[in-house]
Specification:
This protein is of the alpha/beta class. The chain is built from 17 helices and 19 strands. Strands 1, 2, 10, 11, 12, 13 and 19 form a seven-stranded mixed sheet that branches. A seven-stranded mixed sheet has the order 8-7-15-16-17-14-18. It is globular and about 80 Å long. The mean pLDDT is about 95. Bound molecules: flavin-adenine dinucleotide.
Length: about 475
């Protein structure tokens, strides 16, 4: 009997496995795909190194840094070019630098004078305790301009979401916390040493050979505990344990286990919903997902230098919402990590679609590449979209879970289900944060719950055995 069977070998399942391994708990991971890593995927195409999913994490990523140390791969870390700190917003037909100092903020054209004044007025706005959308929260505290010109583009880069639906409490828990504690968020930022220090010296990281290094190294460590290509996974409940059947190389295999950890995207959980009461099943399976297409394109450095009025020494740009545009933002990949392209080329990674452009999934890869080239060249003043060569397109149909209004109570229900001691546990990016780091952190928290459950179960099994004797 296994202690835990983990279903899914994305970073949630892999990092949970690694944590169980460190705690000497017996487990098995089952993954239907022929590779581990889930959304984390790095592809070498000719002279280019391309990220299909996540491309960076920052220096505040404590859980990733701990894993890097445990896996002994510190020498493979790659810090972003320090000049890549500069970021841009695409608005009204042009790229505008995001201000990073007070002086730049006073001078920026991204906000009107009235928009800037709203930030001062924020100090005097009363606090609100109820759950509200990002739109209501931002407009109430900072005004419409901040919402349109900063918050919507910023959330394009993280959730690819809809500010009219996303829950401010779930998406901005720290800002909501400052409001509760200090009444004013701006005042709270100045008063809270923790918040001030979190803005200092933030560095972006990847690995020299791309993000897949992280998942690959965990996979290699746990290789004999992971079965890839595990098809037709079926789980049934016996008296106080689980029976898991699946096909591997056309053979049916079965395991018994004290507990199951689902490390799957929430929308796929409907397959296993028969295992838990209906009211809980809907909380998990109804979490909305937004689609994103990753489009990687390259061009000659000289082309960009001739057309583009700004230097590409920066991270890239995020877009404000404009009718008919589908581009969420573009990372200037070769500026951030120069080893990703030959020195005479520019490599651009763009993201299109999102919760407000769900129909992107109806379009062919060629159509998506063309619309991206058009919008990227418009944004960067490249005279002809044909100058962008498409290297890679990947449509992630269910890319990012949306923390919409009600998210916190949905998560509470999922926690309640785990507390019922059925031996069913859940991890993934749909719970407490969507970044890789938050996903790893979530898996660590859930492993703590599993440990408590196993303590109870094993004690019970020992007592039952004593009774039999
Ligand atoms: C385009 C994109 C860009 C991103 N950029 C960043 C970034 O720069 N930085 C960052 O920190 N985060 C980023 N993220 C978010 C981050 O990549 C994810 O949140 C994280 O990788 C999710 O890990 P996961 O294990 O929860 O899910 P997944 O990676 O989706 O893994 C789920 C696993 O479950 C398996 N599975 C699916 N269905 C079933 C089933 N029915 N039965 C069994 N197994 C199944 C899958 O094959 C997969 O292996 C990005 C995400 C995307 C999509």
């Amino acid at each position: 009997m296994k202690d835990v069977i983990i279903i899914g070998a994305g970073i949630a399942g892999l990092s949970a496995g690694f944590e169980l391994y460190k705690n000497n708990i017996d487990f098995q991971i089952l993954e239907p795909a022929n590779r581990a890593g889930g959304s984390i995927k790095t592809v070498k195409i000719g002279d280019y190194l391309v990220e299909s999913g996540p491309s960076t994490f920052n220096s505040l990523s404590k859980e990733i840094m701990e894993l890097v140390k445990d896996l002994d791969i510190e020498d493979l870390l790659q810090a972003a070019n320090p000049q890549a700190k500069k970021r841009y917003i695409y608005r009204n037909g042009q790229l505008m630098p995001v201000p990073s100092t007070l002086k730049e903020f006073i001078k920026t054209d991204i906000l009107s004078r009235e928009g800037k004044m709203m930030l001062l007025e924020e100090l005097f706005i009363k606090k609100e305790n109820k759950e509200e959308t990002v739109q209501d929260f931002t407009e109430r505290r900072f005004g419409r301009e901040i919402l349109k010109n900063f918050i919507q583009p910023y959330l394009n880069g993280i959730f690819a979401g809809d500010v009219q639906k996303l829950s401010a409490n779930a998406v901005f828990p720290k800002l909501k916390g400052l409001e509760t504690k200090y009444r004013s968020i701006i005042g709270g930022m100045f008063l809270s040493p923790k918040v001030r220090s979190s803005f200092k010296g933030l560095t972006l990281y990847s690995f020299i050979h791309g993000m897949e290094t992280l998942s690959d190294k965990i996979y290699n460590k746990l290789k004999n505990k992971i079965i890839l290509d595990a098809k037709d996974i079926e789980i049934s409940r016996a008296k106080d344990f689980y029976i898991v059947n699946f096909k591997s190389n056309n053979k049916i295999i079965n395991y018994t286990a004290n507990s199951i950890l689902f490390a799957l995207p929430a929308h796929t959980m409907s397959e296993f919903a028969y295992l838990f009461p209906k009211s809980y099943a809907s909380e998990i399976t109804q979490i909305e997902y937004a689609p994103i297409a990753t489009v990687v394109q390259a061009t000659e450095k000289s082309t960009v230098e001739a057309c583009c009025s700004i230097s590409l020494e920066g991270f890239g740009f995020l877009c404000t919402k404009e009718p008919y545009r589908k581009l969420l933002g573009t990372v200037w990949t070769s500026s951030v990590f120069p080893n990703r392209a030959p020195s005479d080329k520019i490599l651009l990674t763009s993201y299109v679609g999102g919760a407000l452009n769900k129909k992107i999934t109806d379009q062919s890869e060629e159509e998506i590449a063309n619309l991206t080239a058009k919008e990227v060249s418009e944004s960067m003043q490249i005279s002809n979209p044909g100058l962008l060569e498409t290297i890679y397109v990947k449509v992630h149909t269910n890319a990012i879970p949306q923390y919409n209004l009600g998210h916190m109570s949905r998560v509470k229900k999922i926690e309640e289900l785990m507390d019922k001691n059925y031996g069913l546990f859940f991890t993934g990016n749909y719970l407490y944060g969507i970044s890789i780091n938050d996903t790893i952190k979530t898996s660590k928290l859930i492993v703590e719950r599993i440990k408590k459950f196993l303590d109870i179960t094993i004690k019970k099994q020992e007592n039952d055995q004593v009774k039999l004797l």
